[in-house]
Fold these 4 entries.
Entry 1:
Amino acid sequence: MAPAPAADLCAFIDRSPTPFHVCVTVAAELEAAGYLWLGERDAWPVEPGRFFVVRGGSLVAWSTESSVSPSDAFRVVGGHTDSPNLRLKQHHDLSPEGLGVVALEPYGGAWLHSWLDRDLGIAGRLALRGGREVLVHVDEPVLRVPQLAIHLSDRKPLEVDPQRHLNGIWSTSRGSFLDLVADRAGIDVGDVLGFELMTHDTQPSALTGLNGELVSAPRLDNQVTCFAGTRALLAVEPVEGVRPVLALFDHEEVGSTSERGAQSDLLATVLERIVIAAGGSRDDYHRAIAASVCASGDMAHATHPNHAERHEPLHHIAIGGGPVLKLHPNLRYATDAPGTAHFAEACERAGVPLQRYEHRADLPCGSTIGPLSAARTGMLTVDVGAPQLAMHSARETMGAADVEPYARALAAFLAPA
Ligand code: ZN
């Protein structure tokens, strides 16, 4: 497959400050490769081809070019488009101490202290009068959440209160922040009837360390999977009787329950419509699901050199050590033995090593879309990922050498032997 270098990942992330922008970035790559953007209101083409749909901040893409029967198996790579951040409240204009301040609130499990003292931009989508929607991406440092000086906090780190300590300064005088956003989007603020706006670090992603061996970037969790999954889908040599699918969901960081999250009907509906468009029945859909496997891709905890004791002793994960299989006995991850075998085989065929992660039993473990989408679709699912440090920080770190093998393993998974 074409290389998926870490520099391309950095460009992907910098273009994609929000789930909506992730979908646009992925859509552009898919369209360039001949994928056709379908609306959910469209009747779907009967002829085999390459297609995708977007529902808000979620996207599902698939190829039926190698399909021979409506009940053919699906091979799905899943992931999520959202990342923790600070979002704009509806009534947000404050003016304490005569300053222009906007009220922000955390989305998902943002590691709050990491958002302080950063040059923040604002991005998201605006719903306009007349039913129009526009995306906005103000990639300028228009906001900043300053820390309290050490001299005013008893020299102890202050616990960050999500209600009181996360408001952002944007002006030395009072004003309307939405005016600024509408102005940058080139629209009349009076036409903005709804908005979902969120902050992002405007410092570009970078290759750091000796010879650029590390990636320093926001939103590695989980745009690495969005990037690698897209590259995998575009690179895959489809196997006869197997339909490769990429499913990227919004709202994973807040539990996936929405019209477009992994607990929604999005993936199941898309797959059923693929079967029906191919002339199949509902029974054919269930037969297809019974033959299908999903690799739920999300980031994994590399062993932190300063905190190695926080990791399960026999399951240390190396930066640069290749893709990671994620297991949890209490199903925070969906992985079981047959799923493990499917992904291990894909890694073997791709010629990449596979690391196995287990979380310490005395620490609460995060989750992924894996168990939720498995429950929703009934599909055998395996949780996998790529290693990183500082998960949920505004700025995360991974190994540059882990990007390409991850994409290669996912591509092999999409085309089983
Ligand atoms: Zn994640």
Entry 2:
Amino acid sequence: MNNFISNSTFATGSKLKVAIQKSGRLSEESLKLLKDCGIDLRNVKDRLKTESDNFPLEVFFLRDDDIPQYVEDGVADVGFVGENVVYEKNKKVTVVEKLGFGKCRLSVAVKKGDDYTDIFSLNGKRIATSYPVLVKNFLDKNNVNAEIHEISGSVEIAPGIGLADAVCDLVSSGSTLFMNGLKEVEIILQSQAVLIKNNHLNPELQALLNKIVFRIESVKRAKNNKYILLNAPNEKLSEIISLLPGMKSPTVLPLATEGWSSVHSVLSEKEFWDIIEQLKNAGAQGILVVPIEKMIL
Ligand code: ATP
Ligand code: ZN
């Protein structure tokens, strides 16, 4: 009876409806991010609709192209989707947070042997793409006059079969372009997965979203940082400490061995290798590097 009341009468309206790509490059990482945020989902494998037992949230699995529209309409309150799709669809939604995965770029490529000097080399050319809106904006902004051919898949084969002179498609490593005899000449957009929200969330749903964003930020910060422990002779301590940024300042603890200390700190992934090298040169020993699970400021 209790279950019946809480599920159907009160709780339903206050669940945050989250849209995730059903199957594709963003699906697994989106689900993993929710899991890293401590949100357990039931029957994820079915990829239909599911919910969480430990957070008031429902998940809808959809095609990524449909997510901005569903979020604008309020069918979903928030969605995980690539920036490329958000800006192409141009729906009335708000980008809340960059998620740090699904990184790629939307680029123009031409045949390897073609002369290409600058963007005006595209004048009069036929460009095949699944991103007509973004390509048109890019061409207009640069006063280039080219013909856009919208095709929905396998864009990279268009020049080879004489359908177009150039393509504009998503690239990550560039190997697909290379295998199709194409070279990348312009980058239109750098993209990654983002969290978008409906523009008219009620305060209750906004509060749930705030909780999720707080957790996502802690997870992202943790991924970008490492916890480091090292041993240092006391006479080198001040030099070693000056190399470490730390969250506030490093923790320094005496070791059982006279004249030595253990130093603990947090380093960002970006500066990590540089600093490790300097620490070794300064006399640090027994350096341990540990991943951080959550990092809350
Ligand atoms: P759906 O069936 O949901 O429409 P899709 O085929 O359009 O799927 P995917 O290929 O799974 O989509 O890509 C989803 C998103 O992953 C892209 O919109 C983009 O944001 C991101 N992505 C990251 N790297 C790449 C890449 N190399 N090629 C294509 N998309 C990439
Ligand atoms: Zn798609």
Entry 3:
Amino acid sequence: MSQELWAQVDDYINSVVIGSDAALDAAAASAVKAQLPPVSVTPAQGKLLHLIARALGAQRILEIGTLAGYSTIWLARALPPGGRLITIEANPTHADIARANIEGARVSDRVDIRVGKALDVLPHIAAERQPPFDFVFIDADRTGLADYFDWAVKLSRPGSVIIVDNVVRKGGVIDSASDNVDVKGVRRFNERLKTDTRVDVTMIQTVGAKGHDGFAMALVR
Ligand code: SAH
Ligand code: MG
């Protein structure tokens, strides 16, 4: 098994379940052009987020980590008329690129981009006393992961779903001696998850165009 094969299978899967999509293809191309890190969800992962949000009938979605807005567009398209998605991005350049892509996908009416560090922005969102989020996608830096997850639980309701991306990190997650900040962030999150009575959770490892990684799915009790 190799990265090359995983990428070819992902291409094949995309040809079966997605095909070409002008707005998403443009968003992906913009990220390449701006030399952003190649860490957007793959098309098939984006569609999984979209389908979960739709299956939940999500009306309010929170995303932490926007990058070029690729996953944002998938999620925004799952919302019914009047639905709302708040996405948090620390890097103003990324936020500008995302804004253009979200406009290109004609979902800007539903999307609210908050520029700032998640741990600064989340307390503001809490202070706004909005209705709870039905679906949360956590995909920013992993240093703050455990804290983002706490906020996600706090800002949701029983039955809400929280997806946490990139929790396997090429298998790095099993290395208790790792000094990689991302691995340490995920491991700290996982340690707390073991005794977290607020959620029921699973974790799935994946291979594909973006390598060997995985995601966690939590259902809020
Ligand atoms: N969800 C996107 C990819 C996000 S990449 C997609 O799949 O298409 C991670 C993003 O999180 C980057 O744009 C990075 O700038 C942002 N980020 C990193 N640390 C952050 C923080 N503390 N608060 C908010 N955003 C952060
Ligand atoms: Mg990710």
Entry 4:
Amino acid sequence: MSYILGIETSCDETAAAVVRNGTEVLSNVISSQIDIHKLYGGVVPEIASRHHLDLVIQVVDEALKTANVTLKEIDAIAVTYGPGLVGALLVGISVAKGLAWATGKPFIGVNHIEGHISANYISSKTLKPPYVCLVVSGGHSHIIQVSDYDKYELLGRTRDDAAGEAFDKVARAIGLGYPGGPLIDNESKDGDPEAIKFPRVSFGKDCLDFSFSGVKTAVINYIHNVEQKGEKISIPDVAASFQKAVVDVLTDNTLQAAQKLGLQDVAIAGGVASNTCLRSEMTRKAKEMGITVTFPTPIYCTDNAAMIAAAGYIKFVKKAFSPLDLNAIPGLKLL
Ligand code: KG4
Ligand code: ZN
């Protein structure tokens, strides 16, 4: 039996969780700051850090209480050390270091993206490397070959905006507000995904890279054209057509990667992995190709600490502990 306490403060969620044996979530406490940042149309880094400071201790306390585990019974403390907002990261890291030092427990720094990928092990007990993982969040759109639990190879990436970033920017352009992804997802339910033909960018059959800035500009141009004609825009149709354009490319490139490598398993990770269209299209197309798709339940797709504890467990088993002088690395890369 091993109990890992995970802490996550890289952006606008203050989160703590206790995970047993790498995949059993005993508690998963998330205090979201979305309502505060909504006022500004996006995350304000300094405000995020201050709120993390106010909340982090009570969030950690609640995670331990809900899990019915004392700090003494915890085997290691895992925390996100990048990528993310430096001030926000430092709050979680400082708390984790303090707890580790005071209790003498191992301290484990976790890459946030590795956390997102590991969220899949919580939801699927059968997923094992090697597999192809599509990581789609606010800052990442990567197709990764997961060769082993801690071995990754980059197969494709965005050349401009991340998928989540495109969702957020388009949501702002069509007046839906922040955070854009869930709002577009919701609005799309009443729209026709074939109503407007937005571009799907491809860099040729041997390249798995993405580009989403073109589709974002196409949406903005479409809105201007319709408005200039004095016509009314159907927000659900724009949302559904934009979403489908992004999902088509994400799905096709990821499945092409799995097919090329002869891998039977595909996983999706990151905030955009909670998108209902992406989940259903990936499942539908993969089934036709005989590929199995895994995605975390929505609460483990967006930022949470259970995924950090799950990734921390992989390092704990290998005794890959971090030194107590570990610093925050805002631009930390997985590959
Ligand atoms: O992984 P995440 O919570 O934070 C980062 O590490 O970036 O991802 C946040 C991103 C945001 O851009 C948000 O708009 C997007 O994930 N997102 C979604 C959905 N839920 C969150 N995008 C599309 N559909 C959703 N349902
Ligand atoms: Zn994230």
